[in-house]
Amino acid sequence: MIFLEKIIQNKMSNKTYRNRILAADDYQGIMEAYKIMFELGFPENPLETFNNGSSLVKRLDENLTDLKVVLTDNQMPGINGSEIIENYARNSQFKDVRFILATGDGIEMGQKALKDGAYGYLIKPTSLEEFTKMINGALK
Length: 140
Hints:
This protein is an alpha/beta fold. The chain contains 6 helices and 5 strands; from the N terminus they run αβαβαβαβαβα.
């Protein structure tokens, strides 16, 4: 009920309710796992998925209206996740959007993402508990 009240309150105040999640990874198995985890753990959050950095960038350049979280893999064809965070996370248009880097490249890559404006990072493979905690934090 509280969730519904927040939506109504935001609609009444002409504010956009940000709850959409974008997730990008070029590995199909990871994308399928993300879809299941988001569907089960965050059913109220619409999810859009992308299989490369270029398609994610195209979407970021289109419409930010209800966007809240961007979860991006680091190593992808086209532009990689680190470059996306570097180019978008500190941009004033994205001040209400939380960027999260998912990387198998180690803590150093995650720390770089934080310096570049990311909300957080996940080291692959990540546990369901870490994943859920990170996404919950980003959605607040």
